[in-house]
Amino acid sequence: MQRHDLFYSDRIKITENFIRKLNFNSVLEVGAGDYSFEYVKNKEEVLWVKVDISPPCDIICNFSSDNLILPFNEKAFDLIICTEVLEHTLWPQQLLKEVNRVLSNNGRILLSVPNIASFSYRVAWLLGHIPSCAATGNLPLELGSTAYKKTDGQLIGGHVIDFNLKRIIRLLKHVGFEVVCVKGSGVIWHKQILPHWIIPPSLSSNIICLAKK
Predict the structure, then answer these.
(1) Tens digit of pLDDT for each residue in 160-208?
(2) Integer CA distances (angstroms), 132 to 33, 84, 156, 160, 170, in order
(3) How buried is residue 1: exposed, middle or buried, by Cβ count under 10 Å (0-12/13-18/19+)?
């Protein structure tokens, strides 16, 4: 898919740091698409599986289903990475329930979501603008869509749900996870405006969570 341009933001740096500090032998990366964190793995023998709604990935899977079943055995992975995915799904609780099922007892889930209550988005709301990360479904791109354009021109995968810090923590607890650590990405607007160490997670552009069963 043709995804929005990514730059080396604090969100990516923090995610990399989490991965480097974790001990794992098997990884499931949900929604890897054309940006995978596989380059961070600390040993060659690690099993790293990428699943997404379309190539490039190892397995294609539709995440927006209320009866989603990931094609993996229970407790198959030590680490599951799910960055900037949940906001595209109609039933994020079902995806996370499946993540819980295929995660080992001592495993970790590392995820991130855009924060609709971030500092920059609060300013946008006050000025009468809809923030760029707000749910838009699959509106045409010229109308501010958060969808991605496939190679055949079809729009797919726009944001359908908004998250703030409270909602993502409640969702993780709802499906049986215990939040271990929460970090923010700072303020990002096409570039890193303010670093993560200045801005609390509740006001950051992205919320990054590490959780366990």
Answers:
(1) 999 999 999 999 999 999 999 999 999 998 899 999 999 999 999 999 9
(2) 20, 14, 16, 13, 24
(3) middle
In the chain, the domains with their CATH numbers are: 10-116+162-212 (3.40.50.150)
Q: What is the pTM assigned to this prediction?
A: 0.93
Rounded Cα distance between 25 and 45, Å, is 7
Would you state the pLDDT for residue 169? 98
Task: Extract the tokens encoding 88.
Answer: 């595209």
Contacts of 168 (CB under 8 A, 6+ apart): 86, 111, 113, 207, 209
Nearest by Cα to 159 from 122, 130, 190, 134:
134
Measure the CA–CA gap between 157 and 179, rounded to whole angstroms. 27
What integer is the mean pLDDT of 50-61?
90
Pairing assessment for the beta strands 148-149 and 155-156 based on DSSP bridges: antiparallel
